[in-house]
Design goal:
Elements: H1 26-35, E1 40-46, H2 52-61, E2 65-74, H3 84-88, E3 91-97, H4 100-115, E4 123-124, H5 126-131, E5 136-139, H6 146-152, H7 156-170, E6 175-180, H8 185-201, E7 205-208, H9 219-230
Parallel strand pairs: 1-2, 2-4, 5-6, 6-7
Antiparallel strand pairs: 2-3, 3-5
C-alpha cells in the first residue's frame, strides 16, 4: 500500500447480534479483516451492544484494534412520545466510542434505549444524546439516517440544520457525513449532496459500506433473513 494512502477500516458493520438483520459472525468478521490486512474493524449493531464483549476479546487475540459502536435508533420527537408516527419516523445514527468515556456513554445510551425508550425498537432522542455525547464519534448513517432522509425529500436546508446540530453535539472533527457505494441509484444522489454539504459546512466525510453479510453469494440468505423479520415472503 502506498505510504500516502491511509489504511481502510470498516466502521459500519452489523453482526449476528443485529437480530434477523445482520448475518456476520464475529469469528468470520475478524478472519476476513485479518485476511485483507486490516488493522481495525468496528461493529455497529442495531440498537444493541450485546456482541461487544465477544468482539473485543476475540479482536485483541487476533491483534486487531476493535472499534466499539452502535447504530442507534433516534426518536423523531422524545422518548415519551409513542405513537404510530414515532415508530415509523425513526432515524439511524452510527455512534463509535473513541475512548473510555465514549464507551461508558455508549453503554448508557444503549441501556436507556432498551429500558426507557423502547417502542417497537430501542430508541434514544436528541436530548439524551446531548447529555451523553462525550467521547463519541457520530456518523450520519445510511439512507435511513436523518440527514440522508431530508436530502431524499429535497429538504436541503433542514438537512444542513441537522448536520450542524450533530456537529455541535459531538464537537469539532467528531461528526462525519457518511457516504456509501452500494449500487443504489438514490444513494448516488445522496452522496453527491453530502459531498456538497461537506464542502459548504466544513464537515468531514467518511466512506463506509453498511455491511450485513460477508460474501456476495450470501445475499439470498440475507434476503430470507429480512423476510423473516418483516413478515414478507421471497
Amino acid at each position: 500500500m502506498p505510504e500516502n494512502i491511509s489504511p481502510f477500516a470498516h466502521l459500519h458493520v452489523h453482526t449476528q447480534y443485529s437480530l434477523l438483520d445482520g448475518a456476520i459472525t464475529i469469528d468470520a468478521l475478524l478472519g476476513r479483516a485479518k485476511k485483507f490486512g486490516m488493522e481495525s474493524v468496528a461493529i455497529t449493531d442495531h440498537g444493541t451492544m450485546f456482541g461487544v464483549v465477544e468482539f473485543y476479546e476475540k479482536a485483541i487475540k487476533q491483534g486487531l484494534n476493535p472499534v466499539i459502536g452502535c447504530e442507534c435508533y433516534v426518536a423523531p420527537r422524545s422518548l415519551t412520545d409513542k405513537t404510530v408516527v414515532d415508530s415509523k419516523e425513526l432515524s439511524h445514527l452510527v455512534l463509535l466510542a473513541k475512548n473510555n468515556e465514549g464507551y461508558r456513554n455508549l453503554c448508557k445510551l444503549a441501556s436507556i434505549a432498551q429500558l426507557k425508550g423502547f417502542y417497537y425498537k430501542p430508541r434514544i432522542d436528541k436530548e439524551v444524546l446531548k447529555k451523553y455525547a462525550g467521547g463519541l464519534i457520530g456518523l450520519s448513517a445510511c439512507l435511513h439516517g436523518e440527514i440522508p432522509r431530508l436530502i431524499k425529500k429535497n429538504q436541503i436546508e433542514k438537512a444542513d440544520e441537522a448536520a450542524i446540530f450533530f456537529s455541535k453535539v459531538f464537537g469539532e472533527d467528531n461528526f462525519y457525513l457518511e457516504v456509501q457505494e452500494n449500487g443504489i441509484e438514490l444513494q448516488d444522489r445522496v452522496n453527491r449532496t453530502l459531498l456538497e454539504m461537506s464542502q459548504r459546512l466544513s464537515i468531514p466525510l467518511v466512506a463506509t459500506n453498511d455491511c450485513h453479510y460477508l460474501n456476495r453469494e450470501d445475499s439470498r440468505a440475507h434476503e430470507i433473513l429480512l423476510c423473516i423479520q418483516t413478515g414478507h415472503t421471497i
